[in-house]
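In this supplementary section we document a worked example of the pipeline. Step one takes a protein sequence of length 93 as its only input; no multiple sequence alignment statistics are reported here. Step two produces a three-dimensional model, which step three serialises into structure tokens for compact storage. The input and output of this example are shown verbatim.
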Amino acid sequence: MALETALKFLERIERETTLRQQLYISKPPNIQKLTEFARGKGFVVTADDIADALDQYQEKFITGSVEPLKLYLKGFKRLPSGEETSLAEIESE
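The serialised model returned by step three reads:
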């Protein structure tokens, strides 16, 4: 279910100019901060969810692109399945 939520977040980024501008103005430095941005917009997701969604997402609209967000995948290490990252761990990075 969280993967579906992350995919919906990417779809909104692609579709909505205002949300895309907010994202690019805030310039999250890493996938954890991108995840915080998504959470701030009401999407309950983890960094792993965002990474999986970026791997799977197929663009649908001609107005925007999520392709630049795929740069967040470089150097991102996914957790072994079944493990969760606590918010404290994310904030300490």
